[in-house]
């Protein structure tokens, strides 16, 4: 409570918080604005009639915008996909690798610019795909797309509208990251999941009540108890693991102080068990369900069959190893982006620091890379397990949506903890700045009095 009071007492942090909340509110309002020519209620009914768990997952990450065929139906997914593509290309294209590692801020700005261009192209292609999907849902007595314009014109209109919506969502995320609190992209996904939780809790409560009354076609109460227990375990696991560190001791060379005495400083470097955070799960979910979107646009039968095998509700035991493998890959990939052992070892060497028993330079880099690889593998397994365990239980409960899956819980708790950590760092920084400012004022007043 003291931190909350300090948050509202400091004008800068209060402005950051209000700015973040206003942009999230604008994003949630845009979810309810449908693309022209689409009957959102009929589309939701048609998709529910199809019973596709895939659409539930896509709708989850878009914050409910997909089934409404909102202007934000694509959400931030094209931007995430574009970021993944360019980061992967950076590992094989020397020019991109040079931009990422050697050009500094100018290189990052160039890559961000290309990411935006690629986002536009992906959003347009995916928009054409889901426009074709909406048209395919037309049925007698259930008109999803009106016949006011030609099918081709509707597809281009929908693709253009969805592309603009994606760019606006991308802009909102970047503004939150720069001028608000927390990571904007993660917060948008977080807001979409949290917005659907009240309805999901209502559905769960109704199903538990029916189960206690021994209603037909409803699982026994034990299944629901197991689900709630799994959710609690996931919450505890996320809190514990996200705060877990491996401390690497660091000693600094002896230096003579003002009295001529030599001293040696000791410290440690904290390496997180899960350095990548929730991003591998977000990346993995986007990549796995991307073929289904392309399949709706191309109508390739082989791609549609491949996408169907990646549906966790119908082929869970095929989806599981693929999901685990993709999560492990992105955990190592994202960790390699955010932490560079060679650069860290070189900085330590320049400042006179060393790890006891390890020679500075290359051996230090190899030592840290070895520890980081072990931590990343354990963290990737943890991400996969907490994402899949509740999903395994929900597969036995028909009618329960993905809001109770481990992926949703992991994103919600992980993003909340990251935002709280950033808020804490802003509070500490603000106190430090205030302390320095008071010191400057006191110094000026002292000098003025002495004169």
TrEMBL record:
Pfam families (alphabetical): SecY
Segments traversing the membrane: 69-96, 117-134, 154-173, 185-208, 223-245, 273-296, 316-339, 375-394, 400-421
Keyword Cell inner membrane assigned: no
The keyword Cell membrane appears for this protein: yes
Keyword list, A-Z: Cell membrane, Membrane, Protein transport, Translocation, Transmembrane, Transmembrane helix, Transport
Domain of life: Bacteria
Membrane topology: Multi-pass membrane protein
Gene3D superfamilies listed in its UniProt record: SecY subunit domain
SUPFAM superfamilies on file: Preprotein translocase SecY subunit
Major localization class: membrane
UniProt subcellular location: Cell membrane; Membrane
Role description: The central subunit of the protein translocation channel SecYEG. Consists of two halves formed by TMs 1-5 and 6-10. These two domains form a lateral gate at the front which open onto the bilayer between TMs 2 and 7, and are clamped together by SecE at the back. The channel is closed by both a pore ring composed of hydrophobic SecY resides and a short helix (helix 2A) on the extracellular side of the membrane which forms a plug. The plug probably moves laterally to allow the channel to open. The ring and the pore may move independently.
Sequence similarity: Belongs to the SecY/SEC61-alpha family.
Subunit structure and binding partners: Component of the Sec protein translocase complex. Heterotrimer consisting of SecY, SecE and SecG subunits. The heterotrimers can form oligomers, although 1 heterotrimer is thought to be able to translocate proteins. Interacts with the ribosome. Interacts with SecDF, and other proteins may be involved. Interacts with SecA.
Protein name: Protein translocase subunit SecY
